[in-house]
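Data availability (excerpt). The following record was deposited with the supplementary files.
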Amino acid sequence: MTVLGEQRGFSAMAAEYDSLAERHPIVIWMRQRIRRLVEGQVSPGASILEINAGSGLDAAYFASKGLRVHATDTAPGMLAALADKAAAPDVGGRLTYEALSFDRLSEAQGGPYDLVFSNLGGLNCTDDLAAVAGGLPDVLKPGGSIVWVVMPPVCPWEMAQALRGHFATAKRRFSKGGTLANVGGEQVRTWYHSPGKLTQVLGPAFRVEALRSFCFFAPPSYFGGFVRRHPSVVRMLTRLDDALGGAWPVNRGGDFYALVARYRPET
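Predicted structure:
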């Protein structure tokens, strides 16, 4: 898969991502909780650098709440969607955007920032997390935070598919060479990163303050049939995720986890 292929795939998904965010109960539930995590890390008027910003749903939300947001992505379709959202009256000119890859953070405009945010698996598009983490000191203020939402190797719902004979699905997150995922008709290689790996890459200058899983108990969004057939069960399972998602060992698995870390460089 080439970089252009990845960009075509994600570009093709811009409108669908927006639609899912508006109507899918699991996606709505996750985004609400992730946004609360971010808002708990910043003061009014703070600045956010969002990497892998996609169509800009979160960027526009935070800008509408009075935060200054600089959103980055590389897919032309996503950048077009970001341009539309940046021009909307309710963001008040607080949303800017830039075509920039996550492995070139030091080139981001407008910094340094109070928080660096990556949502819903954007960082799973690389196996070189060190290249991303290496740019953080150039764009993040001392005492600032990161909130990164990443897909881990352990996803109970996928592993349980072995009981149905779907062994490829059950083990796909454990492939060291990554797994090909269909994104907008393009095959995009995806790697799954454990919290331990992410913490190691960030290094001692970052202190982990929170770790929370999503969809450890509740079904991932792509189990849409189960979600539609069993809404009351899904509500119960999301409540279980809410109650236990921050506790060990639940917070190390699921469809996603959110890692919150504070940047404390040596002085």
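Summary of structural features: Strands lie at 47-50, 68-73, 95-99, 113-118, 140-150, 179-183, 186-190, 206-214, 256-263.
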